[in-house]
Amino acid sequence: MEVINPMSRMVRDELKGILPYVLAIDAVAYLVSFIFLGVNYEMALGLILGSILLLVNMALLGGHSEQAINLYRLTGDVSRAKRKMAMSYAIRSVILAAALFCSLKLDFLNTVGVMLPFLYPKPVYMIKTFISDKKEGK
What we know:
Elements: H1 9-37, H2 41-75, H3 78-105, H4 111-115, H5 121-136
Helix pairs in contact: 1-2, 2-3
């Protein structure tokens, strides 16, 4: 029996590529919070949940983007591809809103810890670009 894997190799590789950076930024964020808050399990749990949801969000973005491109290639209908991406944006927004709601309602989650990882993509890609430029000698 063949196992169907809906995530493409490109999306999987991208997630594997950003994971070490996400974990490193989480560690720095926790160390900074440790300085100001002391040992804080709520912050640690918030960062873990936020990072997991970030990776889910990125996987959905990558997968739905590929699906929208393939839909356009197959049908030539831009409006269907745009609707696909709008629906993807709505799903990802609901996930973000649910994470925010849960972090506000549950005492064992720090809201800043849950939301902070959603800000990671821009610095992660800037760092990755800087590192790859250094390796290439630019």
